[in-house]
Design a protein that fits this description.
With 493 residues, the protein is mainly beta. Among the domains are: 1-73, no CATH class; 331-493, Single-stranded right-handed beta-helix, Pectin lyase-like (Pectate Lyase C-like, 3 Solenoid), CATH 2.160.20.10. 13% of the residues lie in helices and 38% in strands. The chain contains 6 helices and 24 strands. It has helices at 2-21, 34-42, 60-70, 128-141, 163-169, 300-303; strands spanning 155-160, 173-179, 182-183, 189-191, 199-203, 205-208, 218-223, 226-229, 234-236, 257-268, 271-273, 280-283, 286-296, 311-314, 317-327, 333-335, 338-349, 354-359, 366-389, 394-420, 435-448, 454-459, 465-471, 474-476. The protein has a 9-stranded parallel barrel. The longest helix has 20 residues, at 2-21. The chain starts with a helix and ends in a 17-residue tail after the last strand. The structure holds 2-acetamido-2-deoxy-beta-D-glucopyranose (NAG) (3 copies).
Length: 493
């Protein structure tokens, strides 16, 4: 909790910093950004970023610091490229990826706050008075751009409207506005290799051409980066063009968003629609705060979307995800490996539950220190879920799930299984004890499951589930089936 508030404070600071650097726009979000206005004012062409240098300046320093502050002593993650991210049920164990989304549903006042709330404002939970105050302050100061200087050799503000412009200019800019970018087929909107302290703002509608390929549609890497969606912006993946009911099989589908080797950074207020397959993949990253994201794949419920994981995390540390709203068709969250991970204030609908796992059978098989709190899981196959791979080795330790609300769960309210199979996702029915699940707290899981579901399902290996705390869990409905296998004493199914 302490850590959580800490990150919220940082987040608020981040939002303010974004505002400070991107003064309020008149309110609408189509077309003319504050940066463009500033560019116009200074007589520059912001669209291709040329000539902006030194004329629009911001406080990069404070921003960099936020980035640093965010990091909770994690050392940079292993260099992986996400191959370990997740195993998709029925899939081939590929990495997941994530889409992200915006702010509306997560309720930060989505632009209606009218006044100065600009783009950046939407950043997640900065809201209300803080936001507008800040916006005002900066609004007037926006032009007072001449006091700070952009880093040597950097152009401070760039507005891009094509992926090619991004590729060509991204490392020269410390503020990047992505204005209604149409990314061509088989291209990645590549935001890796940014300068430290760079702020990226998605504005308007971001779309992608169609091709069968693996993606990612968007890649972000670097250090001290802030990625935000402007109020009213949408990143529309057009996933229905790929959906064929086969997920990882069938047509090759691009993953949505790779946050790989990203450190001390923030991703906020993105409004994502219709990812072809997995949405956000977080791998080899540390000190990353993600908030105010909406992933709306609800169309996929009837149009054949599958394996559309919300957030897949592998080999990463100090990852905080909060205020997210996900409607998808696979795990809302899946942690394959990593340390010091928090997931809170989330709504997960339509998917397979909030999961740790599957763990085992990858390069990194350690999950240590996870807090999952204040999550509502509805219309999903499972609620709380931990899955470890039969026959594999690994550790899951120091995990707390608390204040979890369940509604209309079709299979298991709480499921902890040590008989998972990578690839098929099927249980073997023969749990093994090579992956330990130790110091697990499940507290305050409430609500109900559907009539043919099982409220609590535990299948542990012999001696591999130890030191569990279990309190305040009341899952109504469903059927009692079997019993707990090898569960720690006092826990009943
Ligand atoms: C954007 O706003 C500026 C100043 O408000 C104006 O000069 C410019 O023409 C506008 N650009 C567009 C594309 O509307
Ligand atoms: C329950 O969830 C399923 C999806 O698992 C959905 O199809 C159904 O409409 C939901 N029922 C209600 C009453 O929301
Ligand atoms: C058990 O895990 C919790 C986090 O869920 C942690 O705060 C606590 O220190 C751990 N206890 C031990 C003995 O490691």
């Amino acid at each position: 909790m302490v850590k959580l508030s800490h990150s919220f404070v940082l987040l608020a600071l981040a939002s303010m910093a974004v505002l400070a650097s991107v003064p309020a726009r008149a309110g609408s979000h189509n077309g003319n950004s504050s940066l463009e206005k500033r560019a116009a004012k200074h007589g520059y062409n912001a669209v291709n970023g040329a000539g902006f240098r030194r004329h629009v300046r911001r406080k990069h320093n404070s921003h960099d610091q936020e980035g640093d502050g965010t990091q909770n002593e994690q050392q940079g993650g292993a260099e992986q490229d996400g191959g370990q991210s997740k195993n998709n049920e029925g899939g081939n164990g590929k990495s997941g990826k994530a889409s992200k989304n915006y702010q509306g549903a997560s309720g930060d006042g989505s632009g209606s706050s009218g006044k100065g709330t600009t783009d950046g404002s939407s950043s997640s939970n900065a809201k209300g008075s803080t936001t507008s105050t800040t916006a005002k302050g900066t609004g007037s100061g926006g032009s007072g751009s001449s006091s700070d200087s952009a880093p040597a050799g950097a152009t401070s503000g760039c507005t891009f409207s094509t992926a090619a412009q991004v590729a060509a200019g991204k490392d020269k800019c410390t503020t990047i506005v992505l204005n209604n970018v149409q990314v061509p087929a088989k291209a990645t909107l590549d935001l890796s290799g940014l300068r430290s302290g760079t702020q990226v703002l998605f504005q308007g509608q971001t779309t992608f051409g169609y091709a069968e390929w693996e993606g990612p549609l968007i890649l972000v890497g670097g250090s001290g980066v802030t990625v935000t969606g402007a109020s009213g912006s949408v990143i529309d993946c057009g996933g229905d063009r790929w959906w064929d009911g086969k997920g990882d099989s069938g047509k090759k589908k691009p993953k949505f968003f790779a946050a790989h080797s990203l450190s001390n950074s923030h991703i906020t207020s993105l409004n994502v629609k219709d990812t072809p397959v997995q949405a956000f993949s977080i791998a080899g990253s540390s000190g990353l705060t993600i908030s105010g994201i909406t992933i709306d794949n609800s169309l996929g419920d009837t149009k054949g979307a599958k394996n559309t994981d919300g957030f897949d995390i592998g080999s990463s540390s100090g990852i905080t995800i909060s205020d997210v709203t996900i409607h998808n068709q696979d795990d809302c969250l899946a942690i394959n490996s990593g340390k010091n991970i928090q997931f809170s204030k989330a709504q997960c609908t339509g998917g397979h539950g909030v999961s740790i796992g599957s763990v085992g059978g990858r390069d990194d098989n350690v999950v240590d220190g996870v807090t999952i709190e204040s999550v509502k899981i509805s219309n999903s196959v499972n609620g709380v879920r931990i899955k470890t791979v039969a026959g594999a080795k690994g550790t899951v330790s120091d995990v707390t799930y608390s204040s979890i609300q369940l509604e209309n769960i079709s299979k298991y309210g709480i499921t902890i299984q040590q008989d998972y199979t990578l690839g098929s996702g099927e249980p073997t029915g023969r749990p093994t004890n090579g992956v330990k699940i130790q110091n697990l707290s499940i507290k305050g899981v409430q609500g109900s499951v559907g009539s043919s579901a099982v409220p609590v399902h535990i299948v542990c290996g012999s001696g591999s589930c130890t030191d569990w705390q279990w309190s305040g869990n009341e899952v109504q409905g469903g059927q009692k089936a079997g019993g707990c296998l090898n569960a720690p004493q006092g826990i009943t199914c």
